[in-house]
Amino acid sequence: MKIILVDDERIALEHVKSLLLWDEYGYEIAASASNGRTALRLCEELRPQIMIVDIRMPVMDGLELIRAVSERKLGVKFIVMSAYQDFEYARQAIAIGSVSSYLIKHEVDRDKLLHELNKAKESWECEQKQRKIERSDQLMKAVTGAAAMTVFQDNQAAPPYAILLIQRDSPFSAIPSPFGKTSSLQALDLASHEINLCSGQSDWQLIGELSLNRNQFIALFSQKNKTVSMQRQSFEYLARSTDSHLKLHDDSSYSFYYSFQSTDSSSLHDSFRRVEAAARHAVFSGKNSLQCADELPMLPLDNEIHPPLPPRNIYFEELIEGMDQHDPAIIESVIKRVFNSLCSPLWDLAGLYEAIHALTGIINKRYAAKGLPEADPLTLGEATPLYHIDEIMNRFIVILQRLCSNKAELDRLSNKLLRAMQYIQMHYHEDVNIEDVSRSIGISPSYLHQLFKRELGRTFLDYLTEYRINQAKRILNQGDAKMTEVSARVGYRSPQHFSQVFKKTTGMLPHQYRHGGHRL
Fold it and tell me: Is residue 507 in a domain?
């Protein structure tokens, strides 16, 4: 917590400095001044939380300083230092409203000073919570275009502005979601703390912040020096510093999207829409990215005429021909052209969902022809979650090429084994055993066991366990379900037994996998 000392007597300043080991109690003497005018300038530059001031000083006395700081709504708490004969002045200072207490100079000792500092700190923190609530409300109204940003204007937070959206990275899902994988509010509180910490040493002043949802945090900044051009590199450095500080306390990865606004606060709504759109298009930039939303190749936000998008049906027809010819080179070429058309000249998020839907349909049609159940290619037996469009493209290339190369292998599987595999994939979440499966297809358990060993090279239990654990990985990657729920959803009654099987199969416990252990 920053403190500025103000007294025209150097001996008095040195005496106060010597009373405490300030760092040990969480305080920092940011500066000292011998008159109110200098102290006011330092206050505006350094933004302290507490000022310890004398009453009688040249140029600008303590009362004038307190009034000036209070009028600027800088949120400072004052501890007044007074001599006996200045008691009436001290009373006037307290009446202004931002004074926490006063001390008689010759009575100040370590314990009394520490007591008053802690009292001022508690008062500042209480008021800061209320200010934060008010600012969050004003910021939400400003960025949504519901109202002007009057509270921030009172704090002399004039343009240029920068708006920053921090989003916790989530794996891409074929089902559009506004928030992705949910995170804890504690992570967003941490983001708020790190932004406040880093902005204190930046060319940009933090003037408002709020949590949009459980995954997104937004902050508004104003450039401190209005006389120079937009300090873009400085803001990017601020964002990178915040990310570095977050990594020290949180294993999750975050992406940062920002936009600049050089006009008045009425245009902040446009900047907010740009960073919000950039966050929705996170799959095009990948995880742990830092992007200026003003420069991204996104489709226009307003109801303007969109550029014509390339037809993709011809690609899928060519893909099917390549699959029928079992030609991996054609498959790879077509898929790359499809995904390149989604990225250039503009990012086409809606087109990406359509392409994934079409490719998934092609894959599942081939599965159905073999008596296999439908599957989600983005999670099909894969341990690694997908964050970037290139990863999605490569996933489809691998699956489609494998599907063709495995055609002969699938043809060699007996119909009875295919039906057994289909039964497992439809009932894995139940208390299924080899007797249930063999009964459903009309053969004996011993014969079914032989089929698994002869045709797949594994036992029935091996196949069931592998399938269940792969489904558990998918659930762990896509949500925050409790372990009791995860284990039940994949057919394990006991969470403890599920954890044991998961560790035996993957080498780590489920919660370690969820927190990224499989990516180390």
Answer: yes
Residue, of 187 and 106, whose pLDDT is higher: 106
Alpha-helical runs (H) found in 225-344: 232-249, 268-280, 282-285, 313-324, 328-343
Strand 50-54 to strand 2-6: parallel, antiparallel, or no bridges (unpaired)?
parallel
Structural contact between residues 275 and 163, judged by C-beta atoms closer than 8 angstroms: yes
User: Domain containing 109 — which CATH number?
Assistant: 3.40.50.2300
Which residues form the domain of 346? 298-412
Helix H, strand E, coil C: the string for 138-155 is HHHHHHCCCCCCHHHHHC
Does residue 271 sit in the same domain as residue 222? yes
Q: Which has the higher per-residue pLDDT, 274 or 512? A: 274
Residue 479's domain is classified under what CATH number? 1.10.10.60
Same domain, 167 and 286: yes
Amino acid identity for residue 132 in this structure = K
Domain boundary among 373, 393, 412: 412
Q: Are 379 and 474 in contact (CB under 8 A)?
A: yes
CA 432 vs. chain centroid, Å, equals: 40
**How many CB atoms are closer than 10 A to CB 42?**
18
Indicate whether 467 and 513 sit together in one domain: yes
408 and 423 belong to one structural domain: no
> Across residues 472-484, what is the average pLDDT?
82
> 389-405 and 328-343 are packed helices; what angle lies between their axes, rounded to 10 degrees?
160
For the full predicted model, state whether its pTM sits above 0.70: no
3-state secondary structure 347-386: ECHHHHHHHHHHHHHHHHHHHHHCCCCCCCCCCCCCCCCC
Tell me, yes or no, whether 139 lies in a domain: no
pLDDT at 483: 92
How many whole angstroms separate alpha carbon 331 and alpha carbon 340? 14
Residue 73 one-letter amino acid: K
The phi and psi torsions of 252 (rounded to 5 degrees) equal -70, 160
What is the total count of domains within the chain? 4
Mean pLDDT over all residues of the chain?
Answer: 84
Same domain, residue pair 173 and 278: yes
Q: Give the residue from 219, 407, 420, 425 showing the smallest Cα distance to 328.
A: 407
